[in-house]
Amino acid sequence: MKNEPTYNLLNSINTPDDLRQLNVEQLPEVCDELRQDIIKELSCNPGHFAASLGTVELTVALHYIYNTPYDRIVWDVGHQAYGHKILTGRREAFFTNRKLGGIRPFPSPEESEYDTFTCGHASNSISAALGMAVAASKKGEKDRRVVAILGDGSMSGGLAFEGLNNTSTTSNNLLIILNDNDMAIDRSVGGMKQYLFNLTTSNRYNQLRFKASRLLFKLGILNDERRKALIRFGNSLKSMAAQQQNIFEGMNIRYFGPIDGHDVKNLTRVLRDIKDLQGPKILHLHTVKGKGFAPAEKHATEWHAPGKFDPVTGERFIVNTVGIPPLYQDVFGNTLVELAEANSKIFGVTPAMPSGCSMNILMSKMPGRAFDVGIAEGHAVTFSGGMAKDGLLPFCNIYSSFMQRAYDNIIHDVAIQNLSVVFCLDRAGLVGEDGPTHHGAFDMAYLRPIPNLTIASPMDEHELRRLMYTAQLPDKGPFVLRYPRGRGVLVDWICPLEEIPVGKGRKLKDGNDLAVISIGPIGNKVASAISHAEAESGRDIAHYDLRFLKPLDEELLHEVGRNFSRVITVEDGVIQGGMGSAVLEFMSDHGYTPAIKRIGLPDRFVQHGTVTELYQLCGMDENSITKELLNQCALLPVTSKIKELTN
Asked: What protein family is recorded (predicted)?
């Protein structure tokens, strides 16, 4: 238990029911205290900072007006919801946020009844909330309200527009709140951002129309069909008068706003006024990401997840990186510039994560050679396919877990046509505190069956650079590179750019007793584990770096199949269908019968914690691998060398 600071109002709020006992005049004070609590907590326990500061007033207003958890609030994306967690019974436990066994990094129905839906990826709220609204209607729960909150650029995702389209044609009373802060993680981009910034509608007009429609319904003059026709007619008149078309009202979705999302008293009034309005509605708020903390307001991207900082001065506590290996993403970003300088066909593509994946390095040095396409992974892939079809060579960088959203695009728009797109899967493997929505657990398993793909994973920074160089050589087709979050292993990471033969692994160490096959950076843990196991067991253990999941190095695998009775495979991905499965299939297809032990991510969703903790939890840390090596060594026949050591 932590020492609780004293707040005049927040200390007495354990649930939204407590919040609703206050009067509206007290809500600004609640907002101030809630904002200070978020700043205090995150200064020493890092997490997503600026986004939640920007939604404090919205969070308070929603829980004040709506009967949560009976009424449903769907957050999109969930890193805006720290204030929501604090107000819904988790304030005392909030110091455990993102820690192993503690509060989850994003809202989760497994954690709280107030968390209505999983929301680690963007743009799903309208679809999910519409489903809840329809369910409430079909179950006769006419008093249940449903609210979807889109912020941090989520409206730029295609799924949001699919949800809007269905919302406009389905009977529902859904409220969609657009938290327009001109931001995703980096600055929002695209026409929708500019449209939302310029959009205006008269609140007085909306209030008059609402009152008139309610009167006409009471008089029996208006029904649902006539109402829709009137809305279309009214929208046409508004468009003519304003000389602009409101995209939402063009879809027969009532539009309110934009209003100041930091005026909590006015926000509660507006929410109360439109709460019982029939039909789908959009409430457009203008907010400031990082609101209430000056450094975050000025530099919202840097303060999205700033790490530890001084809550008074705003000084960030930056780790001294002199003499330690670089981040894999920075090796990627700098190498991409190096390659682009030599190859004019190379362009960069990223869906709203230029700083997160270090594409911003290319953007800074060659502004015309990189594209941030917004939160739109499927579009990023197909856009890259179109570029490749007409002779360019895009490096499409998408986090591994986000690439899941573009699976069909990979197959339909790139692989079938064998187009030369380099897919750079950042954050492959366990990512740590962001938890199961962000772990890059599935990419090897879901990509391996797709024809025409080359799939590779570098063991270190030199291998990443050389594989990037290889991928951009002529006629390589679609090429996947997966690498982890965090730092590599080489301080001296710059090396000559040389081609690696596609489908060619390497033997890192000879051995006669046991073979270990690894892929990717986890091979560094394997190398250390082998050294410890050999010293303790007296066995000779061979180590192979497979490098390529597809195509497999068949010569290497034939060597293993012919010479070893026991084999261990180690991968930083799900054990079902990944590299170990590929090795099993190869051995079976070619009549080899070694006993194969697979080490990888278990068949469950791994929760949040530090990467070190999660490796231990999954039996994939160096000590666990060493123990498994010793277990396998103990099952081998006793050799003359072992007899000699034991005598």
From this structure: Belongs to the transketolase family. DXPS subfamily.
